[in-house]
């Protein structure tokens, strides 16, 4: 059981990196669809309002957490199918 957790670590790292890239791409598309600028505002963008910065940050965080959870869950499910053991 412990060997599976150790073996899953590199897989989890790769899935984490992939989920971060995927979440960034999803957020960018959602932000454009909402009719905002091409780029979301950063916290120190002087020309953007507090409201816009906080909405962008909240939306980005929600999308990132959802995509990460979905990718992690899919990876764990795949490991269970392959090995019969849950990796967590």
From TrEMBL:
Record bears the keyword Transmembrane: yes
Keyword Membrane tagged: yes
Highest rank taxon of the organism: Bacteria
Segments passing through the bilayer: 6-27
Keyword line: Membrane, Transmembrane, Transmembrane helix
The name this protein goes by in its record: DUF4235 domain-containing protein
Organism: Streptomyces melanogenes
